[in-house]
Amino acid sequence: MKSRFQPDRGLTNRMLATTFLLGLLYVAFIALLVAILRNALVAVVIAGGLLFAQYWFSDRIALYAMNGRIVSPQEAPQLHAVVDRLCALADMPKPAVAIADVDLPNAFATGRSPNKAVVCATTGILRRLDPEELEGVLSHELSHVAHRDVAVMTVASFLGVLAGLITRFGLYSGLFGGRRDNQDGNTALVVLTVVLVSAVVYALSFLLTRALSRYRELSADRAGALLTHRPSALASALVKVTGDISRIPTRDLRTAEAFNAFFFAPALSSGFSLSSLFSTHPPLDKRLDQLAQLSRQLGQAV
Description:
Elements: H1 9-36, H2 40-56, H3 58-65, E1 68-70, H4 77-90, E2 96-100, E3 107-111, E4 117-122, H5 123-128, H6 131-146, H7 149-156, H8 158-176, H9 184-228, H10 231-245, H11 250-256, H12 274-277, H13 284-297
Parallel strand pairs: 2-4
Antiparallel strand pairs: 1-2, 3-4
Helix pairs in contact: 1-9, 2-8, 4-6, 6-9, 6-10, 8-9, 9-10, 9-13, 10-13
């Protein structure tokens, strides 16, 4: 189903390239593991089941994890009004609308397709943003829905999940299921090989999916700003949300970091973390520069 969100050929090409590279990596990974680990099929089946569950129930999982609930137009008339207007502008199906009762100012969209999507705003972001800024944030999130980003990122992350599972399976079978005879040395070598191969595959898939994630955030910023014709409102929301996130208690931020791939703006705690090294989002300055350039193209003051 097409919408009026501007298509992004760069995003499409990057998604195809990432999927192709991950596919090659996956085929090589499985071929090697089947050669050295007789029960690799078990891990593949388990990972496939997890992928299916994550893909099919992503909306429920995300809402449950963020303490979100679906709200009716009577419960949240202003939020529904913004979503109604944006969906009419974009000519797309209206997703379910939810609110997460947390102070962290953020929003996210999830769901396997535009017809099975949920857009969720936290009470923290609803309290802090004015109507135009909220519209900018929700147009960003609806762009993710229109471009099927959630489904693509779920599939793209499958190889990393598989590598982690096979690492655990290899360690478990080596430590607890190994044979107690003269072949113990061979068993240890197999386990070590599985762990090393899985670690390399996980690192490569992690870097590929993070690069794709950063680009899709820029794409959603651009598409959302062009839909509303208010890049400055989205930029204002970005500055306000990012600044207020820095004042959220560190313990709460670290709890939320696991969901950064979904969020409008990443929840990053201070100090060293993998999230700050391999972020799911591009730097704030880069996002603001793109929005400023869009404002100039639209003949608006920056």
